[in-house]
Amino acid sequence: MEIRPFNPSDTDQLLTVFRESVPGAFGINEVDEYAEFLRTNTDPYFVATYQEKPIGACGYYCLEGKNVARICWILTDPAAKGLGVGGALLTHTLNLIRQQTNIQQVECRTSQVAYRFFEKYGFRLHYTEPDMWAPGLDLYFMTLAL
């Protein structure tokens, strides 16, 4: 597995991975939002590849005027579950965030599907909001102090 910066040529495969994660991890209503993100994003976003095929992605952005970075759009191919793709992507992203000396906290907006994953990396749950992402997919707001 290799982790590298996102390239626009990754878009179709990442959208396929995203759609394969609906409805388990994402709502169908989020597909267009993710496609727009891939089309317009200028913040750091990384792709995990296996045999040159994208099998996951993760990125972050810094909140303006704050010492906070936020993890965004982390996903992995359901067929690659258990291979450590998500952990490798999150570790890679957190290592880059830690290089920014002004960042003191990392936020993550996830769901009940993935919040335990983030707990393994030291994130703490602060609150939940029912049906935030889609019916049955709740917001779990988590933070990690650096």
Short note summarizing the structure:
This protein has about 150 residues and is an alpha+beta fold. It is about 25% helix and about 40% strand.
Characterize the structure shown.
With 146 residues, the chain is an alpha+beta fold. Helices cover 27% and strands 38% of the residues. The chain contains 4 helices and 7 strands, in the order βααβββαβαββ. The protein has helices at 11-20, 31-40, 85-98, 115-119; strands at 2-5, 45-50, 53-62, 68-76, 105-110, 124-134, 137-145. It has a 7-stranded mixed beta sheet with strand order 1-2-3-4-5-7-6, with helices on both faces. A hairpin with a 2-residue loop joins strand 2 and strand 3 (53-62). Helix 1 (11-20) runs antiparallel to helix 2. The mean pLDDT is 96.
Secondary-structure blueprint:
Elements: E1 2-5, H1 11-20, H2 31-40, E2 45-50, E3 53-62, E4 68-76, H3 85-98, E5 105-110, H4 115-119, E6 124-134, E7 137-145
Parallel strand pairs: 4-5
Antiparallel strand pairs: 1-2, 2-3, 3-4, 5-7, 6-7
Helix pairs in contact: 1-2
Termini separation (Å)? 27 Å
What series of H and E elements makes up the topology? EHHEEEHEHEE
Structural class: alpha+beta
Strand content range: 35-45%
Number of strands: 7
Instruction: Determine the fraction of residues in helical runs and give it as a percent range.
Output: 25-40%
What is the molecular shape? globular
- Radius of gyration using CA atoms only: 14 Å
Which ranges are low-confidence, i.e. pLDDT below 50, for 5 or more consecutive residues? none
Largest sheet, if any?
7 strands, mixed
